[in-house]
UniProtKB/TrEMBL annotation:
This is Molecular chaperone DnaJ. It holds the Pfam family DnaJ. Residues 103-162 form the J domain. InterPro entries: DnaJ_domain, J_dom_sf. It comes from the Bacteria.
Length: 162
């Protein structure tokens, strides 16, 4: 499949940089991409490009139509570039599981790598409790989660990591 995407990419780049674009060829290419692509974003971009590319093939003298067709080709090419760009790191790796303390810090909106005092924790708790309290329109579960996060940070040894 990557070979096919690479050939589409080369053809699209050739079409975009040509002095006069062969809109019939561009329409056929977009139809092929829409029919054969397994990526939904690429398929949708190609499907949306087909009507304007066909219109440009019939009326290549209309400047606004050719500009719109050029833009649609650019969108399809951008999607292909996104699919073929090198990705760094481990692919399909699950994100690192957070500890109870890290989850509590995120819940309270506190930074992960900073030493916290009890006052910092209480301030963050009070700030969020004002908006999350059930009497102020917040949900009961969100308020309980907030209180649990405060407890985890104030008494770190009392709670085991899940």
């Amino acid at each position: 499949m990557m070979d096919r995407i690479e050939s589409w990419k080369l053809t699209l780049e050739r079409l975009r940089t040509a002095h006069t674009v062969d809109w019939d060829e561009a329409g056929r290419l977009a139809a092929e991409i829409a029919r054969a692509s397994t990526d939904t974003t690429l398929r949708q971009a190609a499907e949306q490009a087909i009507p304007i590319l066909r219109q440009a093939a019939h009326d290549s003298e209309a400047h606004d139509i050719t500009v719109a067709a050029q833009r649609r080709l650019g969108v399809v090419l951008e999607v292909i570039h996104g699919l073929t760009a090198p990705r760094f790191g481990r692919r399909n790796a699950l994100p690192k599981k957070l500890t109870n303390e890290e989850r509590a810090r995120r819940t309270l909106g506190l930074p992960l790598a900073v030493q916290l005092t009890c006052d910092d924790i209480h301030q963050a708790y009070r700030r969020l409790a004002k908006t999350m309290h059930p009497d102020r329109g917040g949900s009961e579960q969100a308020f309980l989660d907030l209180a649990a996060a405060r407890d985890v940070l104030i008494h770190p040894g009392a709670h085991k990591d899940a």
